[in-house]
Design goal:
Layout: E1 5-8, E2 11-14, E3 19-23, H1 27-35, E4 40-44, H2 59-72, E5 75-80, H3 92-101, E6 106-109, H4 112-120, E7 126-129, H5 138-146, E8 151-153, H6 160-169, E9 173-180, H7 192-197, E10 217-218, E11 221-222, E12 237-239, H8 244-250, E13 254-257, H9 264-283, H10 292-298, E14 303-304, E15 306-307, E16 327-328, E17 333-341, E18 346-351, E19 355-356, E20 360-364, E21 371-374, E22 378-379, E23 385-386, E24 388-389, E25 395-399, E26 409-412
Parallel strand pairs: 3-4, 3-13, 4-5, 5-6, 6-7, 7-8, 8-9, 9-13, 12-15
Antiparallel strand pairs: 1-2, 9-12, 10-11, 14-16, 17-18, 17-26, 18-25, 19-24, 20-21, 20-26, 22-23, 22-25
Helix pairs in contact: 1-2, 1-9, 9-10
Length: 413
């Protein structure tokens, strides 16, 4: 393993910076993730991928994604992570060859047969072992290394203490989840959806039965009384925002954010927050002081209550929602900047949600600090003053004193 840090100009700097790997459910989200700081993005194709309800990518979409990523020095990973049944076998070789041909950097795989095919075909793309296989120990990692795999995506259940041992001895790259939803069971091993809704969780159809409401019985007697909230097995979401420095110092190769079904605003907020945090720590790790800013930023994106997952061994009842929904509403995403006239101090924007004169807006960006401002004037495309912006995707103009940039976003405060 190469050095994680070096002394440069008398100051220790991180030279083994982790890849920041973001999710994307469509091309708009993918491009936003990259512009907001992702080093790589993982997407699902129309075939052989979980998350069947996501707006999965056609081959042409993936090709466009690769071409866009190349402009930023970023990479595209494609999930091929279903567990194959007999009727899924046809077409897999041709599909993998096509992904390789268009320049995909890696595929994420759960079925051993796909692993073998990818290596037998001698493709240029890397083969990453999916978290669906719940890899939690060095022996399993060595097994996959012996098969020729390039990276293992650890199960979300991997503790920090186990990760320290793994990173000292791993023969291949390691990817570790830092943010997103938790599975109530071991990742990839739950049959609850199959049993209750006949939707196969390992073939992209998980109905998230663990988040349903249930009546609770004890020895045949109904426990929850009339008026009580029904029971749910739902977990809080994981966020390791307070432990990024520790993970960087271990030399983890890739930090993974979960959420291909999440919104554009969520992707931009979460990716840009972790990007700024990683860069700030790597620039001067010895003098780095963690700020509440990062956690506050994450709380502006729609998510459930956050916890540390399995970082400190087994989660307790405090990491479960049970009969509490406890979901944090997002600060409403209202504008996306399309252009800015510095002389007129006028921003051309695309409306995403209702806003009006007098609303307070926070502009956030991968390029500058957050800016809070009041909406004082709104112009339509004919440069006529209007009081409200209530037409989705309408092109408007607003006055902003601060020089914002294309693709900056604004949310209500």
């Amino acid at each position: 393993m190469r050095n994680i840090s070096e002394i440069i100009d008398g100051k220790r700097k991180i030279v083994k910076k982790p890849e920041l790997l973001a999710p994307a459910g469509n091309l708009e989200k993918l491009k936003t993730a990259i512009m907001y700081g992702a080093d790589a993005v993982f997407v699902g194709g129309k075939e052989f991928s979980l998350r069947s309800q996501a707006s999965n990518f056609t081959i042409d979409d993936i090709k466009e994604a690769v071409e866009f990523a190349n402009q930023y020095g970023a990479h595209i990973h494609v999930t091929c992570n279903i567990i194959l049944h007999q009727d899924n076998l046809e077409g897999i070789e041709e599909y993998l060859k096509k992904l390789d041909e268009i320049g995909v950097s890696a595929i994420i795989v759960a079925d051993p047969y796909i692993m073998k095919i990818a290596k037998d075909l001698k493709l240029r793309l890397e083969v990453h072992v999916s978290t669906q296989l719940s890899t939690l120990n060095l022996k399993a990692i060595q097994f996959y290394a012996d098969m020729g795999m390039d990276r293992v995506v650890l199960g979300r259940e991997t503790t920090y203490e186990d990760l320290k041992v793994i990173m000292k001895n791993t023969p291949i790259d390691i990817e570790y989840f830092i943010h997103g939803a938790m599975c109530i069971h071991y990742s990839g091993r739950c049959m609850l959806s199959n049993y209750l809704s006949r939707r196969d969780a390992n073939r992209g159809g998980c109905s998230q039965s663990c988040r349903w409401y249930y009546d609770l019985y004890n020895q045949g007697q109904l426990v929850n009384q009339e008026g009580d909230m029904p029971f749910s097995m739902s977990s809080k979401d994981m966020s390791l925002v307070d432990h990024i420095g520790e993970l960087i110092e271990l030399g983890v190769d890739s930090f993974k954010i979960e959420g291909r079904m999440k919104s554009l605003h969520y992707i931009a907020t979460v990716v840009s927050t972790y990007r700024k945090l990683i860069d700030c720590y790597c620039e001067d790790p010895d003098l780095f002081q963690h700020s509440s800013f990062y956690r506050q930023e994450l709380n502006k994106a729609a998510n459930r209550a956050l916890c540390h997952g399995f970082f400190y061994e087994h989660p307790t009842k405090d990491e479960q929602l049970f009969n509490l929904r406890d979901e944090h509403p997002t600060q409403e995403f209202i504008i996306r900047v399309l252009d800015y006239d510095k002389e007129k101090k006028l921003a051309k924007i695309e409306q995403r949600n209702y806003f009006k004169i007098g609303d307070k807006v926070e502009i956030f960006s991968p390029h500058h600090e957050n800016v809070v401002m009041d909406i004082c004037k709104i112009y339509n495309e004919n440069m006529e003053l209007v009081e409200v912006a209530n037409h989705p995707m309408e092109i408007l103009y607003i006055e902003i004193d601060y020089p914002v940039q294309m693709n900056d976003m604004g949310r209500k405060v």
